[in-house]
Write a structure and sequence with these properties.
heterodimer; A: 519 residues; alpha/beta; Alkaline Phosphatase, subunit A; Immunoglobulin-like; 9-stranded mixed sheet; 4-stranded antiparallel sheet; 19 strands; B: 534 residues; mainly alpha; 3 domains; two-stranded antiparallel ribbon; 23 helices; 3% strand
């Protein structure tokens, strides 16, 4: 056993008595009970909103609106600036993309996510979220890092190789993600862009048994693996190009720029199971909103970026046929205080809504609306109903097919598994959907004047409708009873403005949708 | 605490000062940790000194007043090029020009630094008492913040903490100006406890972080109410009517200490209260240890190094100089186990390579070129994840606080290629600092002539490696260097090539040929893992 590895195991023995003793880590590593074949090619994309996102202005509990007006008068949205999803919830007016995803049945909201004994420090709360520790324990490794270590106990020794040619985790930016931190080393790589190459110059290095020798070994190994990983990334990225029309201009939306890189890597065939991107600026103590125009301002701009980037990312995945292999999770270190402060902002809070999106998610708002009292004290927070580790556990269970006993090892405890995927709700419906009711790719797209829209149908009443991305119905192309066969409807734009629209095909509860563009 | 260190040699755990003259190796170690890349001449200057004399020298108070950032862009209609804007009222119209000046003035200070701990400690405080210039838009406020951390860099931690509390930049950055009676804003109060002074302890029950509670934060926020900034006078002032005059009662951690209304002096009582706890001293000593020695703090180090230094720090009423003197002259600091144990941060790497290779940086005769070159350096460091003046958040850079990897976080698949680009740019490319001035290129002979006998390949290589590497290279590495310098040839061919060039100085082609060989070997050395370490 090499020196670093020996040290690593010795370290885990001491730091994580709850989880792994020195022997267990090897047993788990040898036969980890994780079904690799089945989950191969599946990816999780973590979208971190840094600073603490104001959940109550993101997903608005409509039945609590009157009380929201009373307790957060300075930041609450005007009622007509809420895009309602249904009778009970609406989203911020700048999140039309998110609303579209919800209508396309690709977006799930999980309300009131948090943990017991909330910590209001950014750093501590982020540590808790990223390490999946409880409020009192100090855990230095990341939750996904522990999962990766079970699969790859020898990392970074001899990585990458033929068996594991691709990075185990990628964060886009310039820093490693603590989510992928292992006991001693980080299992992820960091990418700033796609076309960097690097040639390592280190050789013949000898390592002494001192802190110097230890750090020298670390740097040398990162240099060697950087050379190899960047070569792989560069090759893969050349295999595909971005094709969605929904991407904003480069540099206009940093989150979109990052997700664009992720989409290209996935389309190129990278088998990396996790990608991590972030967007900062959510620590809106002051001037979260423009006074008197509370649907505008800093927070509105941030949510617009999140919404636009998510929609474009999902569309890009769809264009390349990767939609079913990718699950994305949007979250923050905490929500914000229920009451607004006197600086047109909100202070650090507790529970918040998580957003999970992808073609396979269970498209619902999970959980009851938070209860907003008529009066609040300064420190009143949204109460936690769903432990964030329950969401992680559900992802490991449903998406990565990890045994429940291993999930318990990774997350230090058992957590409720939530129905986060359509398949975890009703498999037959999903099958029906994909086989029998399906829009074929619209061609040409963008459309100049007319186009033939083709789809395969089920027996029964079927509608084909066109919506704006903010959810307004603009045209009914068809609404009638048909027999099961391939159908075709001609579409003429007559009078519709240039831009992107959502085409929705529906039979009872089964839907398929596609974004089309008019030019 | 993990046991990784138990497998490593922890070195001597003594704070006794090292005696006698430093010698080359120790002088190099001390200067590389105290500055941004120790130059050969600087190491030679210090090596004859005792540790005590060397520390006296490194800690001396600058005799000349701090330079001021100068206007260098024609776009600023209010400030002529070559004059300073710091006493001109902030104008958002010219923010771009002035923030460019501010940032590059700072980078230039690092490039031009003396043998002194001043700039390294200024960066320490910048990472400790963070403000971000993306958030604090007022350039004058950024400058006043900078003046505070620079003039107090080697001063007193308690004084600095108090002064920082009412600094215009900090009042803006952490919403102090929005903290009023009846609508308190806890932002600064929280960070004052959590990051700036005593540090966050374990959560022992809801709202109790061992060293302070949520209640203490709320009470502290009340103490701090009423402070405002005035952009006409570039100063902070106290507005009595916005101040909470009630009694502030703290938790049992502070023995239910009561702070009564003292108006504009009240915040000093809060600082006194927090500094009455030994943990405040420990917290800063640990941070300085990670800054200067090594990021892993073992139980042994905690007991034998941190604890006595914390006691010494309190005995000296939080004066920085005696603390640094004790740490940086100790047997522990100079133990060979720790030489090279620190990964260079992006500024140590980027400014360091320029200084150590004797690169000719534009001087003050062309201020625009000087700031332009600094801007190049600044952007190189930014690519490696350290943007001077603009830390990622109020906690500073993760490489200085995030366990378990700490400064290992500087090195990853994104920053390694970025560092590689710096090496190529400095050694091989021609850089134009700013449009309209000549390009600069690296002259490898300046460095080569620092060798006593540059015609002797062994002396030449030894001069380079002793400057660039923490410890001497092994035999295979030396063979590899020779293979790069004179591929497939015996050693004396270097002497022949060198002398050939010396004897025909007018032959440009010969000079270029020898120069290219020198550049290749320097690229090679600087690209090695060893060069990432100090």
């Amino acid at each position: 056993m090499d020196r670093r590895k020996f040290i690593k195991n010795a370290a885990s023995f001491v730091t994580l008595p709850l989880l792994l003793n020195g022997q267990a880590i090897q047993v788990l590593g040898a036969n980890s009970g994780i079904n690799l074949e089945q989950t191969k090619g599946r990816a999780l994309v973590l979208i971190q909103l840094d600073g603490g996102n104001d959940g109550l202005n993101t997903l608005i509990p409509l039945n609590m609106y009157d009380n929201l007006v009373k307790v957060r008068p300075d930041v609450v949205l005007p009622e007509n600036k809420i895009l309602s999803l249904n009778d009970l919830q609406g989203v911020h007016t700048s999140m039309s993309g998110v609303k579209s995803l919800f209508e396309e049945e690709k977006m799930m909201f999980i309300q009131n996510v948090g943990y017991p004994q909330p910590n209001l420090s950014h750093f501590r709360s982020k540590e808790i979220l990223l390490s999946a520790s409880d409020s009192k324990s100090n855990v230095e490794s990341g939750w996904f890092g522990r999962y990766l270590e079970l699969l790859h106990p020898e990392y970074p020794e001899n990585y990458p190789d033929n068996t594991n040619p691709h990075p185990l985790a990628i964060s886009i930016g310039s820093s490693s993600s603590p989510t992928c931190q292992g006991d001693m080393t980080n299992l992820g790589i960091v990418l700033q862009n796609l076309n960097t190459s690097y040639e390592s110059q280190s050789n013949n290095t000898t390592y002494t048994d001192t802190p110097y020798g230890y750090e020298l070994e670390y740097v040398t190994k990162v240099m060697l693996s950087t050379e190899k990983y960047l070569e792989v990334v560069s090759e893969v990225s050349e295999l595909s190009e971005s094709s969605s029309l929904l991407w904003p201009e480069a540099k206009a939306n940093s989150l979109a720029d990052k997700l664009k890189i992720v989409a290209r890597l996935i389309a190129g065939g990278l088998t990396t199971p996790i990608y991590i991107v972030n967007l900062g600026g959510f620590d809106t103590h002051a001037t979260q909103v423009v006074a008197g125009e509370t649907h505008t301002g800093k927070h509105a701009e941030l949510l617009q970026k999140v919404s636009e980037a998510s929609l474009a990312f999902q569309d890009e995945l769809k264009q390349h046929g990767n939609e079913d292999d990718v699950l994305s999770l949007i979250y923050s270190e905490f929500g914000r205080r229920i009451g607004s402060n006197k600086s047109d902002g909100t202070d650090h809070g507790a529970a918040f809504p998580m957003m999970l999106f992808g073609s396979q998610v269970n498209p619902t708002v999970f959980g009851e609306n938070p209860v907003i009292p008529e009066e609040v004290e300064k420190k009143t927070n949204v109460k936690m109903k769903v432990d964030f580790r329950s969401v992680y556990a559900s992802i490991l269970h449903h998406w990565f097919d990890v045994d429940d006993s291993e999930i318990k090892n990774i997350l230090f405890n058992e957590f409720e598994i939530l129905p986060i995927l359509k398949s975890s709700v009703d498999v037959s419906e999903l099958n029906n959907k994909s086989k029998e009711l399906k829009l074929l790719p619209v061609y040409p797209n963008p459309i100049k004047n007319t186009s033939e829209i083709q789809f395969s149908s089920v027996d029964g009443w079927v509608s084909l409708k066109l919506y704006t991305l903010s959810g307004q119905l603009v045209k009914i192309l068809m609404d009638k009873s048909v027999t099961e066969e391939n159908q075709s409807v001609s579409f003429s734009r007559d009078g519709l403005a240039n831009g992107n629209y959502l085409l929705v095909l529906q039979n009872k509860n089964i839907k398929d949708s596609q974004i089309i563009s008019l030019q | 605490m993990n046991t990784a260190e138990l497998q490593l040699k922890s070195g001597v755990l003594s704070l006794n000062p090292v005696s006698g003259a430093l010698g080359f190796q120790k002088a190099k170690h001390l200067l590389n940790r105290s500055m941004f890349g120790a130059r050969l001449s600087e190491i030679n200057y210090v090596k004859e000194m005792t540790t005590e004399d060397a520390l006296e020298y490194l800690l001396r108070t600058p005799t000349e007043p701090l330079s001021k950032p100068l206007g260098v862009k024609n776009g600023d209609e209010e400030v002529p090029v070559g004059t300073s804007w710091v006493t001109t009222k902030y104008n958002s119209k010219f923010r771009g020009e002035r923030i460019y000046s501010y940032k590059n003035w700072w980078v230039n200070r690092l490039l031009q630094q003396d043998i002194s701990l001043l700039e390294k400690m200024t960066l320490f405080w910048h990472n400790h008492f963070v403000i971000e210039n993306d958030t604090v838009r007022n350039t004058n406020y950024n400058y006043l913040y900078n003046t505070l951390i620079t003039t107090q860099a080697l001063g007193n931690f308690k004084t600095l903490s108090a002064d920082m509390t009412t600094n215009v930049g900090m009042l803006q950055y952490l919403d102090g100006i929005r903290n009023d009676e009846g609508s308190p804003n806890e932002n600064y109060a929280r960070e004052l406890f959590e990051l700036f002074t005593i540090g966050k302890g374990e959560l022992i029950e809801e709202g109790n972080y061992t060293n302070y509670t949520e209640h203490d934060i709320r009470e502290a926020a009340k103490v701090l109410t009423g402070w405002k900034t005035n952009s006409d006078t570039d100063s902070a002032y106290f507005k009595e009517s916005k101040h909470d005059k009630t009694e502030k009662v703290f938790s049992e951690i502070y023995d239910k200490h009561v702070i009564i209304d003292k108006g504009e002096d009240e915040y000093k009582d809060l600082i006194e209260m927090i500094f009455s706890k030994k943990e405040t001293a420990r917290h800063l000593v640990r941070k300085l240890y990670r800054w200067f020695v090594y990021f892993r703090i073992t139980d042994d180090v905690e007991q034998n190094i941190i604890e006595p230094l914390a006691t010494l720090f309190i005995e000296n009423n939080f004066e920085i100089k005696p603390l640094l003197k004790a740490l940086l002259s100790s047997e522990h600091f100079f133990d060979e186990a720790y030489c090279g144990a620190m990964i260079k941060n992006p500024l140590e790497f980027t400014v360091g390579i320029i200084r150590q290779l004797e690169y000719s940086v534009p001087d003050a005769t062309n201020i625009q070129a000087q700031y332009g070159f600094s801007n190049t350096v600044r952007s190189y460091a930014k690519k490696q994840d350290l943007e001077l003046g603009n830390p990622p958040d109020v906690a500073g850079w993760p490489a200085w606080y995030l366990p378990p990897m700490y400064n290992e976080l500087w090195i990853n698949t994104a920053t390694i290629p970025a560092r590689s680009t710096v090496i190529q740019a400095i050694i091989k490319w021609k850089l134009r600092p700013v449009t309209g001035v000549d390009k600069i290129s690296f002259d490898p002979f300046t460095l080569a002539y620092l060798a006593e006998t540059p015609y002797d390949i062994d002396n030449l290589l030894e001069t380079f490696t002793s400057l660039l590497f923490p410890l001497p290279p092994n035999q295979e590495q030396i063979a590899d260097f020779k293979e790069t310098l004179i591929p497939g040839l015996p050693d004396f061919e270097w002497t022949a090539e060198w002398n050939n060039y010396i004897n025909k100085p007018e032959d440009e082609n010969l000079k270029i040929a020898v120069g290219n060989r020198l550049k290749n070997i320097l690229v090679k050395m600087c690209s090695m893992a060893e060069y990432q370490l100090i």
